[in-house]
Amino acid sequence: MQTSCSCPCEESEVIVKNHPVIRFICHCKICQEVYRKPFADIVAVRSNQVIKPINPTIRFAKHRFPPAVNRGFCPSCNSPVVAFLPLAPAFGLSFIPAENFSKDYELPKPVLHSFYDRRVDDVDDNLPKFNGYWPSQWAVSSRFVSTILRLG
Ligand SMILES: [Zn+2]
Ligand SMILES: [Zn+2]
Predict the structure, then answer these.
(1) pLDDT digits 0-9 by tens, 78-95
(2) Which ligand is nearest to the CA of 69?
């Protein structure tokens, strides 16, 4: 199974193989900046599930301190397309904006809020909320790995 995920202007896309692993809401300042929203609705997949286009125009940039997420943007609309976070050799996470999936694609529900201490607005839901850099990174990566192990 393959799904195309395109930016709002549809010039930049990646193809995702199989099912997304987890989805989460990130309130960090970098996401607020690059998504140009109070928070980012992010779908995480394994990096090897992402097929980059044959003719890549996606512009990559690293923002601030390690472990640096390598973020790819559309050169036309400047929206995020895909970001890579290497965790180990041959194993990494990729982040894709939930809104880049087609409307009829059945995405998993978000499982947590990360960097909630940097939020613009309070969120009234029952999801776990993590504050600060390491707790947020740990929450996302441990949920990611445990979901992979559960799915097999
Ligand atoms: Zn675009
Ligand atoms: Zn973030």
Answers:
(1) 999 999 988 777 789 999
(2) 2
3-state helix, strand, coil in the chain (%, to 5): 25, 35, 45
CA distance 35 to 140: 19
Closest ligand (CA of 57): 1
> How far does the centroid of ligand 1 lie from the alpha carbon of residue 22, in Å?
24
- List the chain domain ranges: 2-151
The number of angstroms, rounded, from the C-alpha of 98 to the middle of its chain's C-alpha atoms is 8
56, pLDDT greater than 80: no
Q: Taking the model in full, what pTM does it have?
A: 0.92
Spelled out in words, what is the top-level CATH class assigned to the domain 2-151?
alpha beta
Token representation of residue 12: 């930049």
Ligand nearest the Cα atom of residue 58: 1
* Residue 45 φ/ψ, nearest 5 degrees: -130, 165
Distance 141 CA to ligand 2 centre (A): 13
